[in-house]
């Protein structure tokens, strides 16, 4: 498969095309971020977010631009957003420093009401998960209910680890949208 063909097929939501693009550009985007953040885990997280965002917005990609450049631009913006969030949280922590001098000790054990609410929320969450496509349901089930590692999920569904990570991130985004639309 050629890159331009894969992009066009990805615009029609072709999963094989997404996998091809992910495999073709993963090392490039990951290497770019690794040089910037100098931390393998952070570089991997940003790369996963990059592909997730790119695949969610693949229909906005214009063919007159280089696809690799488009991915790097998305990746740079995600990194900048993360830096801004870190700066904001650091400044908030500094301003609340004096308030943290005194702590009340509370009983953290759940009350019967808390247990009931948790069970009801879990039932709602399971109903929302069932609204996802089966392959997204499967990765959420394997990761969060069976508590499998990415590597174990990869061998279970016979897909590369990078695909598992992106699929899981997309599943979480779709689930969040389902939950958000129910609230409104």
Automatic annotation (TrEMBL):
GO MF terms, alphabetically ordered: DNA binding; sigma factor activity
Ranges of residues in domain RNA polymerase sigma-70 region: 28-87
Signal sequence interval, chain numbering: none
RNA polymerase sigma factor 70 region 4 type domain ranges (all copies): 126-175
Pfam families (alphabetical): Sigma70_r2, Sigma70_r4_2
PANTHER family hit by this protein: RNA POLYMERASE ECF-TYPE SIGMA FACTO (PTHR43133), RNA POLYMERASE SIGMA FACTOR (PTHR43133:SF51)
Protein name: Sigma-70 family RNA polymerase sigma factor
